[in-house]
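Example record

The entry below shows one chain as it appears in the dataset: sequence first, then structure tokens.
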Amino acid sequence: MGKIFNTNGCCDPDLHYMVDLTERLQNIKSMVDAGKYFSINRARQYGKTTILAALADYLEKDYDVISMDFQTMSSLSFESEQAFVSAFSAELLDLYHRFPDDIEERLVSFVEKTAGIMSLQSLFKVIKNWCQKTEKKIVLIIDEVDTASNNQVFLDFLAQLRAYYLRRGRTAAFQSVILAGVYDIRNIRQKIRPDEAHRQNSPWNIAADFDVSMSFSLEDISGMLKQYEADHHTGMNIPEVSGLLYDYTSGYPFLVSRLCQLADEKVGTAAWSNAGILEAVKLLLSEKNSLFDSLISKLNDYPALRDMIYRLLFQGQTIMYNADDTATDMLLMFGFIKVEHETINIANRIFETRLYNYFLTLPEIQNDDMYRLALRSKNLFIQKGELDMELLLAKFVEHFDDIYGDQNQTFYEDDGRRYFMLYLKPIINGIGNYYVESRTRNQERTDLIIDYRGAQYIIETKIWRGNAYHERGEAQLIEYLDHYHLKKGYMLSFNFNQKKEIGIKKLQIGDKILIEAVV
């Protein structure tokens, strides 16, 4: 059986198409060689388990590696110090089989609860003796440390690691300790002890920064596709397909692999063309999976996160990065956002579109008159399988003016774009995709890119700021049309002038046609 794309659990290079992890492993090993303790904190399905499995194999020549997963320890294991010592000792015995006899006997006594003292202090004395007697230095890797969140016993365990780390010039200790999970230790401690003093005194303040990129680069994706192409000979344009995958995912590992998996297994003969990847995007955006479920559950659980995402998506607010802001910190941790040029942006197009879909399909939104009118009229806009964007804009202007024409300026600025996307959603739903060009998302201007049955449409939505600003917008739109190799573009202006003339007009500028709609 040949290799496949895998999105379920750890990837194996003998079984799955993968990016080359060699450089990442070399960089992580250099941290281990330097004796650093650190955390690998990334969002869900970001490749943490895969990199840890590969790292354990990569380090084996030089170190004794204990690679542990806290998911294998039940919640009862964290209920008391004695229970944790017993469960942790059992895991050590299961994972490592070359203990000196006296060390093994002590660990067995912890497991069987026959030791005189069952404490973290006594466990770490055994670990110290083990580190003294082993031929190779020991590296401890613990995956899924989130399992221990809200748990004081785990914090006490970290405190012991910290104490031995600080004394390791005088006593034996682990060479390196690597903890992996979504939450970093500061957030775990904050859940247990919310007062300021404890928040600032984390037992994991010894941890070195982990700056190794876990995202897939364009070169990473190309390398993985070259493996696939060598096996299947599809004739794909690897740079073009790699670029499109990267554009939609920004290198988020699960999203890249899932799009490739859908293209390979669901799309069919044209899978590895632009049209095929866009079909895979459509399939991904319409499916339920654990990553999307996790993202949406966070919005439902944390209203502050939901509010910030809404402001980014619909109001075009520029939100400066603030490392001390709790909502920003959580959005980064969960993978919703990225920081570029000191400002916050949605992490990738896939998340962005899924989040738009989430907000635009809430029950209170679908009861809106604009949504119902678009749903009722949707067949008007599809002619011979093509989207009639000019007619769609004309009807939007008509319906919007009938329903909201007497609203004030604040309404337009906060909700105008949202209502256009709300109008658009039922028309292209299930067939087309859309995303916002991130370079133009602000309070005054947003470019919406729509893919419908292989055709692209660029619609600039903006707030009217006078003729000079309007002309600059036309020039910028023409630049984007050149970039996308299109001859026709669309502008939707929200104008607060009392003497405005609502409606549609067509302009010829050079070899480009601009359809301008004013509401």
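Notes for this example: The longest helix spans residues 409-428. The chain has a mean pLDDT of 88.
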